[in-house]
Amino acid sequence: MVASPDTSPESSDEELVTRTVTFGAGADTHVVATSPTTSFGSSPTLEVDRAPESEAYLRFYIEPFTGTVTTARLRVFAVDGSADGPTVYDPPGVRSWNELTTWNNRPDWGGYWGVVSAGAVASGTWMELDVSDMSISQGSYVDVFLRADGTDGMTLASSEHPDPALRPQLVLTLESASDHPPPRPAPLTVSGAPVSFAPSADTFVSEDAPGSAEGGSARALRVGSSPGREAHLRFSVTGLTETVQRAVLRLRVAADGTEGGPSVFGTQGTWSESAMTWSTRPARVGGTLDRAPFLAPYGFVEYDVTNQVRGNGDVTFGLYGNSGDEVAFHSREAADLEPRLFVWAGASRSEPGDDCMTRQEVIATSVPPLHDTYATPETPSTTYHREASLRVDGAPRAEGFLDFDVQLGAQPVRRVLLRLYALDASANGPQVFSAQSFDEATTDWAHRPVVSGSALANLGAVARDSWVEIDVTDVVTTSGRHAFALVPDSADGLRFASAEASERGIIDAAPQLVVVKDAAPRCSYRGTKPSGTTAWVRQSTAVEAERSHHTAPAPGGGFVVLSHQEQTRDAPVSAEWTDVITLHRADGSVVWTRAFTQAQVSFTRVAVTAQGHVLAAGSYAGTPDLGTGALPQGTGMFVLELTASGAVEWTRGYTAWFQRADERLDNPMQVLDLATDAQGGAVLVGTFWGYTDFGAGPVYSGKPFPYDDTYPNSYVLKLDGQGGYQWAKLLLADTLRGTQATSVAVDAAGQVTVGGWAGRATDFGVGPDARIGPFVARWDASGAHRWVRVIPVYFSSLRALTVMPDGGVAFIGDFGGRFDFAGQSYASREPDEYDGGPRDTMLGRLSATGADVVLRTFRELTFQDLIVDAQGHLVTTQAGGGSLLGLGDVGPLESEAPYRPTVASFTDALETRWVRVFDPLQSNLLLTSQPGGILFTGDLVGAFEVDGVWYTPTSRRSDVLHLLLRP
Fold this sequence. Notes:
By secondary structure, the chain is mainly β. It has 1 helix and 73 strands. InterPro entries: CBM96.
């Protein structure tokens, strides 16, 4: 079992809130065929039978509540039972009854829409039926129809029954996790087997005996804060031939457990087991590697220490107390109970030497559970498969069960891992067993799966909000159903997130069975070497998770990167992020980094001027100060310049608004792209609503403010090297979908070329244009119109463009429909569908005067970025589809490993030069032209292998990865 790090406070308080709410019937009645004009709304009982025929109706009003309904149970007391109880029906829209209803005017519902049948019900007992499949929402009525399945009828207590405790109930289980922290990242899926290391030295030191070195020979390592006691361990890691992907420190707890477990840190400094004292102990370095607050006597705990174990050599750890509740761990003097360090390295790989760079990718496939539930003897006939958690406890007893349908395929399996997300902490988690396959809907305590064999794992101490991982490779050896039981090993119970939690949007941390295997060897490259081969790789190493957003080249070599770093560890993506701008040299080393932590500011684009300064632009709200004073009050967009050393030189802010008779509305503005000219000026394109003033007086977008299904219009703004206004163009359409300028480039002559999507009546400089579709337009350095090309296909987009060495333009986009280009007709897969059908992708070229040159279309792939390299070749990125580019099969099969990062190079005639496919990276794949090749940037969130070397993200989260590919 491997647990992921925990930095939570010392508490096992529940943050997934589960509660039940009971609603009584506001109205109920039954009708009888033999009394066709009699109403029974005031009767103390309800009759359901086939002889004489009778049926019952119940209505519940659902008052407002907080949370998500995971289970709904109808509870009705059986005054007179039946060997074959009734069926619950939920006919949609049938509400035409009240307590005065008779057989003759009963609802006409046809007897369809069955929900659940009761089976045998004993007299004097509650009939409880799972009606979770009914539509139940707060502030509304729920009607339940009961009809008998046979002639052995039932008499049920009604809402008029003299004993209020026996009246009908609708019991809802409500679950919410609004205060629950977002799930931590799952453990990295490692490809190699673990190697175990025993400590070469361990000891503990005491603050109250600062000169004592007796801990070096002790059989127990003691840790606490009052008095201060620290444990220190050293391991000699040897024999690793691949990059470390994970490392786990396992310690056995002695007789003294704790509810305030220690934290693990890396340490620095030399020390001797026989001579270390409190006064000579090494210093701890960095942040907390891991922590588990609750530790049971004679149990064990596993700490994720991957960030401290980076390869062969000595590695040292310190355990530091968080509580006066001291804990003891067995030392290396305790023989079989000694500490162990488990290290997983990547699967053995070497740099491919053949022409097509044959690789065998390690593929991890996550299989969701087919069924998962828990059962408890407290309610032996109740099922819990709809709840958001799997409860496991010894008192009161509860056992959890999971069932997976696994298809292993023909390739060899490396590992099979069961992953569970712990919602609570436990000093002694459950044991894991193989079990009989089951159906969750019928699994209660009396019908729970049979457990077989010995325990596959004992989870030991489990931290709250952490993933636990159990290696089940030895039992999942064939395709088919594989079930597991979670059996309590103590009365210190806990809950794991269920599949239902994810399906209902409560907590996205469903159980997984991860199958790790080798794909069949496949070519990862097509072309002529050395083009497309790797010159170097660079990885960011910030402790905080970091994600790339935009890159741009620096004149003469080097590049700038705009990235986002999390402000709080493990924060959700929706939380505020720090915008970071980093200038790199041509070899990938860092010149400087500048972080912007201002709230309500979002950087979107960067560029480097001919003078080596960095331009950056984005959106804001409020009055943030980005370095030279507050921006204008409101919502809008900004542009700033950083000097060659990273200092803010100037900032400009522009707001958008709309003035109503009684109020002024702040409107959003976007910056979608940014370019620079030879004089260091900035050219921006984006969208806005209402009015704005770029420097020559207020201008109107043609769209007052965001509403319904409308989309904004666009601007093109040209500033000089000091941020002063030069000129602006408004690209305004009179259609609901406004004109969107998405990409801009400036050539050596200062001409501005813009691409995007044009709505009807857009004026590019020569009057309204009736055509609708992707466009490329050019203005000279002074803003005078040169030319425009609109491809008239409505369902389409233009994603990016670049200027060729001859002044022509290349562009990428997609379309659904028909159009002509360079004298040839093009049609997508289903061009006559009402929405254009599935989109096809296009790569095209225009001449320096805007004339059609050449176009290629592709199916089932989408280009993400486009540049022209220093040699004048076009380069694209896309997710998957490498085999569709015309050079033959490349990369793993899309059916087993879809959307692999792909880089392709094309001639100026759009003929494919080379294609290369990589291991998975997250985010859009960014390209930057460099004198020595093509910079390829993505986000590293898992194990990534290139040319025989493995890379893994810091803290198992996200790093920015750069690869320089030869042109």
